[in-house]
Amino acid sequence: MRKSNTIQKLTNWEHWPSAMFYLPNLPYAFYLALRAKHLTFFSATNPCIKSSGNGTESKYETILLVPEKHRPKSVLVKATTKFEDVLFAINQQQIAFPLIAKPDVGFRGLLVQKIASEEELKNYLEKYPINIIIQEFLDYENECGVFYHRNPNEQTGQISSLTLKHFLSVTGNGNANLKELILADDRAKLYVDLFAEIHKEKLASIPKKNEIIKLTAVGNHSKGTQFINGNHLISKKLIKTFDQLSKAIPGWYYGRVDIKYNTFEELENGTDFKILEINGIIAEPTHIYDSENYTYLKALKAIRAHWKSLFCIATTNHTDFNTPYKNPFHFLGEILVLKKYTKKIRHLSK
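^ that's the sequence the OP posted. Answer follows.
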C-alpha cells in the first residue's frame, strides 16, 4: 500500500514537494531582486507584519490586526504558562471545547489539532512546550483561501486566487470499518497514516450505512484537504469586501487569507465570515493545487505572476513611503532560526 501511495504521489504533481514549484522560478526571483537593487526587497511588502510575513511572525499578533468582527476568539499560551492559567484564560474568552490548538509560529498545518477535552489539551501542551495559540472551533459550513493584493497607491486591489476547500470524508456502508473505508478511497488512502493517528480509537469501528465520517477538521493540503480552483467566483463585490478589509489593517497589502463562512453570499457581502489567519509574503495562491483543472506549468506561471505583484507593492512602499528593506543577513538569520525551530517541533511530533 505504501509503495502504491508513493507512486501515486510521484505521478500527480499536486503532491510534489514545494521545491518543485519554487526552484524553477528562482531565476525570476533573482531578476526581480536585481530590478529592486536589493536581495530582500520583498521584506517591505507588509509593513504591519514582522518581515512582511516570512513565516517567523507571531500568528497571534497577526490575527489581532484583523477587525474583531472577523477574527476568532484567541488566546496565546506561552510555553511556561501553568495549565490552570490556560483554563482560566480560555474561560475568560468564552472558548469552549472542542477548540483548535496550533503553534504561534508555524505553517502548512504543522501541529494544528482539534482538541476535544481538557485532558487532550493538557497532553498537547505538555507534548509541545512552545508558544501555542488556542482558538475557538468555528463550526461554519465552508472554508476557502482568498489571495488579495493591492498597490499602496491605489484604492482598489485584486483577488488573484480563490481556493475552495473540500474536506475529506468517507461514507459508511454498514459492513466495512473506518480503516477499510479510508483505504478504499483513492484520495484518503494517500493520507492513511495521518488519519490512522487522528482516528486511532475509531479505526476498527463500523460506521452505519450512509453515515458520513469527516476525516479532518484542518483545511490544509498536507492534511488531505482537496483544493479546488474557485477563481470563477471572484467578483467586484468580493473585491470590494477585501478592499475594506485591507484598509482596516493598515500596512497589509499582500497575502492569502484563510476563511470560514457559511454561504458565499455572506462572504461576498462581508456580512459573516471569520479569518483563521493571514499569510504574508510566503503565501501561495493555493488554487494552483487543483490538479484536475490546472497544470504544473500554469502553476509555475501563477507563482511568477504573484511575485511580480509582490515586487510592485514592495518597491512602491520603499520608494513612496520610505519603508526600509530588511538587511539580508538579518532576514537570513530569521530563516535559519525558523528552520531550527521547525526541525525541533517536527521532532516533538514523532
